[in-house]
Amino acid sequence: MATAPAPANKPLHIALWIVQVLLAVAFGMAGGMKLVTPTEVLAQNMSWASVFPEGTRFLIGAAELAGALGLVLPSALRSQPRLTPAAAAALCTVMAFAATYHISQGEMGSLPPNFVLGGLAFFVLWGRLKKAPIAPRA
User: Which end of the chain is more exposed for a tag (fewer CB within 10 A), N or C?
Assistant: First the structure.
């Protein structure tokens, strides 16, 4: 059985895997919470939950959960690994929309997590697309 060639930039490859797993945990927990927590409870900590329709909350939760899975599974299984940068791009978009909402509401204290998570997702997008892509299983 042939093994995959070693990545050209092993430290970057390792850093990307660490960030992918951390982001998957963060977005998986956040998405899951949005899917199972009642709106009234969620709105106590997230002002937007009482402003947007309940379907929007489910859409955001599902997008975050799907993005979390997409950050890890396609690359780990080496089945369609090009989906990993696509998931990272989608999560960047989610964080951009979140930041835009918080800015529009004057909630500047809510921006740091959006920028950190969005920046880390962009790092995965850039790294897996340009510098350390994962080859699909042959």
Answer: N
